[in-house]
Amino acid sequence: MSDDASSATATVEASLCGVVEVGGSHATAAVVELLGSSARIVESGTRALDPALSADALLDGFVAPVQRLTASLVTRWVVAMPGPFDYERGVGIFGDVAKFDALRGVDVGAGMASRLGLAPDRISFVNDAAAYALGEWAFGADTRADRQVCVTLGTGVGSAFLDHGRIVTGGDGVPPDGWVYPLEFEGRPLEDTISTRAIVADHTRRTGRSCTVKQIAAEAAEGQADAAAVLDHAMRALGRALAPWLASFRADRLTVGGSMVRSWPVLVDALLDGLARGGAPDRLDVTPSRLLDAAPLLGAAHWLRSRDLPASV
């Protein structure tokens, strides 16, 4: 192999990528090293966010954790951003989703690039749930499923459908854009049943107390009936809503991630029951996230590298 070829291979196999993951209440920046089929987070930092801030304040918050990193060798950045968002143009289309309303119509890519002293084309965007799914598919399991669906449970329900590691956003067996949050359960939007606000509200109706989802999960683990009933109802609804799509997509694996998955032992039985009732494939492998908070960071870096590789590599 020539020196030029060896250099090209080394560039493909070992590279640094900058990632910003934007959540409903935080922004996390990381430098990710990709080496062949493995990846690791070299350094990272997180900044709390108020999603109701002005556009300028939000953009300042997105780049703040980047500015704390020693990322001088990183020349490309990818931002894992929740929807609704125009990922090709880097423009927000938020509105009536209880977060980032000030970014509606704002060129987020240009705003972040100017704050970081980069050309706008050095920043790319990917859906945060798709990044999470790619992280789990590429680095989170011993085997890579041919057809994998990932849902993330937190303030809402994120989702992504993968065919051999390729993001699928339409076609037979896939809901529009690959998003399950607009689906309905018993005539109402799914997130009216399975989301942070829905779970907290249901628990308050039953108990008269206001608790966080983490507290509700802890009570369920202790055997408190009301807490267990709230989570069981939410997870059965999720399973029943997902099951027809898992069947039509012919999914091999369902990975569940997001902040709620840390309470997996009190979630899994009701989810499996809902999937069975809804007609999910019998052979479906249902598994919690292994990578947790690292999944969208590693997945976004994997997405950027895969997109930038020449077809012949």
Summarize, please:
This protein is an alpha/beta fold and 313 residues long. The chain is built from 9 helices and 14 strands.
Rg is: 20 Å
Low-confidence stretches: 1-13
* CATH class wording of the largest domain: Alpha Beta
Approximate strand percentage: 15-25%
According to DSSP, the number of beta strands is 14
With strands numbered from the N-terminus, the spatial order across the biggest sheet is 3-2-1-4-7
Alpha-carbon distance between the two ends: 15 Å
Write the layout of secondary structure elements.
Elements: H1 3-13, E1 14-22, E2 26-35, E3 38-48, H2 55-67, E4 77-81, E5 85-86, E6 91-92, H3 108-116, E7 123-127, H4 128-139, E8 147-153, E9 157-163, E10 166-168, E11 184-185, E12 188-189, H5 196-207, H6 213-221, H7 225-249, E13 253-257, H8 268-278, E14 285-288, H9 294-308
Parallel strand pairs: 1-4, 4-7, 8-13, 13-14
Antiparallel strand pairs: 1-2, 2-3, 5-6, 8-9, 9-10, 11-12
Helix pairs in contact: 2-3, 4-9, 5-7, 6-7, 7-8
Could you please describe the fold and organization of this structure?
With 313 residues, this protein is of the alpha/beta class. It has two domains: 3-130 and 294-308, ATPase, nucleotide binding domain (Nucleotidyltransferase, domain 5), CATH 3.30.420.40; 142-288, ATPase, nucleotide binding domain (Nucleotidyltransferase, domain 5, 2-Layer Sandwich), CATH 3.30.420.40. 37% of the residues lie in helices and 24% in strands. The chain has nine helices and 14 strands. The protein has helices at 3-13, 55-67, 108-116, 128-139, 196-207, 213-221, 225-249, 268-278, 294-308, and strands spanning 14-22, 26-35, 38-48, 77-81, 85-86, 91-92, 123-127, 147-153, 157-163, 166-168, 184-185, 188-189, 253-257, 285-288. The chain has a five-stranded mixed sheet, sandwiched between helices. A hairpin with a 2-residue loop joins strand 9 and strand 10. Helix 5 packs antiparallel against helix 7. The longest helix is centred in the last third of the chain and has 25 residues, at 225-249. The chain is globular, with a radius of gyration of 20 Å. 42% of the residues are buried.
